[in-house]
């Protein structure tokens, strides 16, 4: 049941043209731009730093923005209400969406990694296990934030807010550009980008600070989502 539900969620996302634009085409274009355009400030090694940041953006796009919008419209059209009346338990409904998001993220990361390798990225093998763990942790954290947003507001509001938040995190949330503002490092986007850069570029374990920020945001968002998420 879990496999079938996760496969359905992943396929629905991959068949959506708008989601493909958000989760694949835009991150690929930004990866190429950040890697090749010297006018955009980027730490050295340039391709490695760009790869880490775009990995973070890909996770945010799928786990947060995509999940929030999909959940909002599923509630609007009564999909969740119908599924909750079926044999699927509620925990499996949530687990299926999370697993579906992980599948989409895995496909994104694979495509981005191949592109980065072509652009000259040298993956330190010592950082590979940490990168995988951070991808999973980032997906869970931003998935919880996506459920929090998509499960409480009207679909139209979710659509607008999710895209606005995505753009803000990209520009001033420590993803595409390093913003020298004190509170930015407390955002989950900056924490994920920083932690991924440590493993993807330097091949070392991420610091305790970024991991703690991701865990804290995920736990708080998950706890709030269980109280505020509505089926309709």
TrEMBL record:
<dbReference type="InterPro" id="IPR051784">
    <property type="entry name" value="Nod_factor_ABC_transporter"/>
</dbReference>
<protein>
    <submittedName>
        <fullName>Multidrug ABC transporter permease</fullName>
    </submittedName>
</protein>
<feature type="transmembrane region" description="Helical">
    <location>
        <begin position="20"/>
        <end position="40"/>
    </location>
</feature>
<keyword id="KW-0812">Transmembrane</keyword>
<feature type="transmembrane region" description="Helical">
    <location>
        <begin position="207"/>
        <end position="226"/>
    </location>
</feature>
<feature type="domain" description="ABC-2 type transporter transmembrane">
    <location>
        <begin position="7"/>
        <end position="179"/>
    </location>
</feature>
<keyword id="KW-0472">Membrane</keyword>
<keyword id="KW-1133">Transmembrane helix</keyword>
<feature type="transmembrane region" description="Helical">
    <location>
        <begin position="52"/>
        <end position="73"/>
    </location>
</feature>
<feature type="transmembrane region" description="Helical">
    <location>
        <begin position="127"/>
        <end position="152"/>
    </location>
</feature>
<dbReference type="Pfam" id="PF01061">
    <property type="entry name" value="ABC2_membrane"/>
</dbReference>
<feature type="transmembrane region" description="Helical">
    <location>
        <begin position="94"/>
        <end position="121"/>
    </location>
</feature>
<dbReference type="InterPro" id="IPR013525">
    <property type="entry name" value="ABC2_TM"/>
</dbReference>
<feature type="transmembrane region" description="Helical">
    <location>
        <begin position="164"/>
        <end position="187"/>
    </location>
</feature>
């Amino acid at each position: 049941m879990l496999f079938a539900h996760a496969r359905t969620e992943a396929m629905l996302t991959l068949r959506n043209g708008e989601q493909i634009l958000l989760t694949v085409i835009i991150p690929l274009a930004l990866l190429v731009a950040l890697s090749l355009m010297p006018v955009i400030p980027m730490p050295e090694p340039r391709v490695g730093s760009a790869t880490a940041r775009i990995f973070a953006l890909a996770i945010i796009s799928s786990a947060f923005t995509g999940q929030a919008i999909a959940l909002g419209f599923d509630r609007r059209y009564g999909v969740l209400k119908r599924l909750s009346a079926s044999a699927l338990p509620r925990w499996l409904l949530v687990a299926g969406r999370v697993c579906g998001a992980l599948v989409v993220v895995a496909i994104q990361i694979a495509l981005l990694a191949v592109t980065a390798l072509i652009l000259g990225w040298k993956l330190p093998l010592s950082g590979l296990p940490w990168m995988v763990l951070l991808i999973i942790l980032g997906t869970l954290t931003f998935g919880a934030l996506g459920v929090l947003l998509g499960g409480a507001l009207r679909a139209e509001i979710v659509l607008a807010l999710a895209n606005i938040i995505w753009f803000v995190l990209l520009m001033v949330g420590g993803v595409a550009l390093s913003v020298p503002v004190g509170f930015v490092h407390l955002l989950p986007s900056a924490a994920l980008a920083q932690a991924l850069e440590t493993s993807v570029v330097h091949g070392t374990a991420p610091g305790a600070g970024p991991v703690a920020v991701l865990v804290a945001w995920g736990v708080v968002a998950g706890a709030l989502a269980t109280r505020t998420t509505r089926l309709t």
